[in-house]
């Protein structure tokens, strides 16, 4: 007897669980051949709110993990992604990619996670500094995570754009709420399943599907979001980000990059979501050139 | 309203009504489905705010902490005008004089827990002294705990007499009787303890100390509200209700208000007859009010710590 096909329900990812959207709405994106990709959750502003609450709750614990442990977890995501490679390739092809490009995109995503996994316990040393000052202070600057980051993911790719922003943001100890590609949402949902199986604490990454045009506003005006990352080139979106972010002076970073290029990854993407804290620590100038000892 | 139980015939507390748990859960689920939006919601939130007993009951409480909380009770969020003050501050007896000074003239009441709170494991003489001390320092309200051990071993008369004795020691102060429902195990017991407390002279019945989980679940509060209604019908005496512990968000607070309205009626929808015992609820309610007024989701970073 032939088994019935069990079709997958694509759900959103909030606080480490997979609820349906609070609104109960869905949309049905099509691929280039006109086939339905699936019934995808059309998230609402209340899902945004719930995600931000989850991200804020997860922030303390995640930012206090040791750098080494964060690196291990990012590497673990890469391992899990590797294990489900064929599923991602299938989904990418279904969403209009060629087989070669699909394989390339998944491999690039895995590489990118490994790349940022490596940075986890190193960026602090590079971004931090000991500063010369003209008083008897030991003066040093260190990088600290910005907080909860809202991410408007690349709309033209399904996986690599998503991974390319999530990885540096969480590598730096932030938590995030991600708006997935509206037209190609499948890999975002499956990537959430990978995250869920990778020791990433619930709430560190939250992924919503739906219309960015509807969700950007509640996300960027949210007083508990500390930074926004936008991948894309829409003037309207950029203006919206600038305007709404003024409410609580969110840090905004916009990227217009071809994420498939191997060199579109670097330390400065981590640095974009770090705050530099400088400490003036009073010292007696023992052992200095003017020392009386 | 008379508040004298001396000439009322006491029922047999062993025969307090039994509670149908499944029925209670169904009824409670209905309260949670009422849709409260826009202006109604803002009105409800402001009402909830005015019913809060801002509470600090920790071993590490200091006069400074109590003063800070008392300030918050009078200035919940000064950025926003037209916000009500909270109903009362709730502190340990040793902090009553600090609190009384800090809220003087503002209309905010001072409630003091008493009777060897939270366990209640002390002799009656100690409990009476505890209560008299708090009253002498100027407490407007006394939150006592019942002896749950005695109650569970069936010594209902002991529990009744104790409450009656404390009531006498309260003088003019209003008496809230904490049942600590988390330790009473069954809803039947909650109902029975409510009856005992009210017949013994409670002005308010209160669910929990906040030190035990579960605390003020809607099921428990519902059973107590029904007990209050039955007591009102039988004796003509109005008793207040205070769910305490576990009500940390606005939604739950609104559900509670709906429940009070539908079980007891609008006569209980003011802070003379209904209170929330909570410490973190106030900020959540404030954030919801500001969200409703500005349209922007709020962050706890911009609200004072309580």
- Using only C-alpha atoms, the radius of gyration of chain B works out to 19 Å
Largest sheet of chain A: 5 strands, parallel
Q: Tell me, what's the shape of chain B?
A: globular
Annotated CATH architecture of chain B:
Alpha-Beta Barrel
Report the largest inter-chain contact.
A-B, 11 and 8 residues
What does the largest sheet of chain B look like? Answer: 8 strands, parallel
**Mean pLDDT of chain B, nearest integer?**
94
Compute the separation of the termini of chain B in Å: 35 Å
CATH class of chain A: Alpha Beta
Alpha-beta content class of chain B = alpha/beta
Number of helices in the DSSP assignment of chain A: 10
What does this entry look like structurally?
The complex is a heterodimer of chains A (293) and B (306). Helices cover 42% and strands 17% of the residues of chain A. The mean pLDDT of chain A is 95. Chain A has 293 residues and is α/β, with parallel strands linked by helices. Chain A has helices at 45-64, 67-83, 85-94, 99-119, 123-127, 160-171, 186-196, 212-221, 235-245, 267-271; strands spanning 26-27, 40-41, 129-131, 137-145, 148-152, 175-179, 205-208, 227-231, 251-255, 274-282. Chain B is built from 11 helices and 8 strands. Chain B has helices at residues 21-31, 38-50, 63-74, 96-103, 124-136, 148-152, 156-170, 187-199, 218-235, 250-263, 281-294, and strands at 52-55, 88-91, 109-114, 141-145, 174-178, 204-206, 240-242, 276-278. Chain B has a single domain (21-302), classed as Alpha-Beta Barrel (TIM Barrel). Chain B is of the alpha/beta class. The A-B interface holds A 48-49, 52, 56, 218, 221-224, 247-248 and B 295-302.
